[in-house]
Automatic annotation (TrEMBL):
Binds 1 zinc ion per subunit. One of its GO terms (biological process) is negative regulation of DNA-templated transcription. Its main location: cytoplasm. Gene3D superfamilies: 3.30.1490.190, Winged helix-like DNA-binding domain superfamily/Winged helix DNA-binding domain. It comes from Blastococcus aggregatus. Keywords: Cytoplasm, DNA-binding, Iron, Metal-binding, Repressor, Transcription, Transcription regulation, Zinc. Zn(2+) binds at residues 92, 95, 132, 135. InterPro entries: FUR (IPR002481), Fur_C (IPR043135), WH-like_DNA-bd_sf (IPR036388), WH_DNA-bd_sf (IPR036390). This is Fur family transcriptional regulator, ferric uptake regulator.
Length: 151
């Protein structure tokens, strides 16, 4: 995969460095990772990497469009490599699991505000909140257990 990252970094006008390659490797293995997870993963490959270096790499990757930063309310910022397609996210209120979901309607921005206030809208960011399958199943089991115990 390093050859692909090398090519993509150069295409984006970034130098190819070990920290950048490490961060890209971690992001490819862990979509929707927070900065701490990325720091830990990158340092596993290169123990001398500082957290500040990893944060700088993330900022550079986001600025050139190789990575995307998403910020679900009440959660740390997450980073992913799926960029340029204006997809949205599902977030579990219980465990924090995140899943990609394609645009709600058609092509970007796929949703239109009732009033643009003079803005030219080119992207819509939507976060759907709920319980993932596992947490929903656990909640249903707990409800049945509590319900069954009270009768």
């Amino acid at each position: 995969m390093e050859t692909t990252w090398t090519h993509r970094l150069r295409e984006a006008g970034l130098r190819v460095t070990r920290p950048r390659l490490s961060v890209l490797d971690v992001l490819s293995a862990h979509p929707h990772a927070d900065a701490d997870t990325i720091v830990t993963g990158a340092r596993a490959q290169h123990p001398t990497l500082s957290p500040q270096t990893v944060y700088g790499v993330l900022e550079a990757l986001v600025s050139v469009g190789l990575a995307r930063r998403i910020e679900p309310a009440g959660a740390p910022a997450l980073f992913e490599l799926r960029v340029g397609d204006n997809h949205h996210h599902l977030v579990c209120r219980s465990c924090g699991a995140v899943a990609d979901v394609d645009c709600a309607v058609g092509a970007a921005p796929c949703l239109s505000p009732s009033d643009t206030a003079g803005f030219v809208v080119d992207e819509a960011e939507v976060v759907f909140w709920g319980l993932c399958r596992r947490c929903h199943g656990q909640a249903a089991e707990e409800s049945e257990t509590v319900g069954g115990a009270s009768t």
